[in-house]
TrEMBL record:
Family recorded in the similarity comment: Belongs to the CD225/Dispanin family.
Keyword field: Membrane, Transmembrane, Transmembrane helix
Species for this entry: Callorhinchus milii (Ghost shark)
Region ranges (Disordered): 1-29
Annotated GO CC locations: membrane
UniProt entry tagged with the keyword Cytoplasm: no
Protein name: Transmembrane protein 233
Transmembrane helix is among the record's keywords: yes
Chief site of localization: membrane
Length: 114
């Protein structure tokens, strides 16, 4: 009733399929991982809506690269990189403002019991 397929036959048929065999290596350009790394690093900054958008754009870039749409992948990767840089700058600005406010008002707000 059921036909068992040999593992090696299945592997060979998958390797010889036109979807997995690329004749011209220049067609598949390498994806720049900078946008993914930056978007993950921006997730540690306190600029939550912006860094999540950067991460979504980098995942969309990776998806379009896996589909074979190199131009779309480059565009989305560029947007992800710019949004991630903006999120990191905004996060550092928030941290800086928090530190300035904290260290300048900590002496004024402390209660002295006499």
């Amino acid at each position: 009733m059921s036909h068992s397929v040999n593992h090696w036959e299945l592997k060979r048929s998958l390797e010889e399929s036109p979807e997995t065999h690329i004749d011209n290596e220049s067609q598949r350009e390498r994806l720049s991982p900078n946008s993914i790394i930056l978007s993950v690093l921006s997730c540690f900054c306190p600029s939550y809506p912006i860094n999540i958008v950067a991460f979504v754009f980098s995942m969309m870039s990776l998806q379009s690269y896996n589909r074979g749409d190199i131009d779309e992948s480059k565009k989305l990767g560029r947007v992800a990189k710019l949004v991630a840089i903006a999120a990191i700058i905004l996060g550092l600005l928030v941290i800086g403002i928090f530190c300035i406010v904290h260290f300048t008002t900590v002496g004024k707000l402390s209660f002295h019991i006499i």
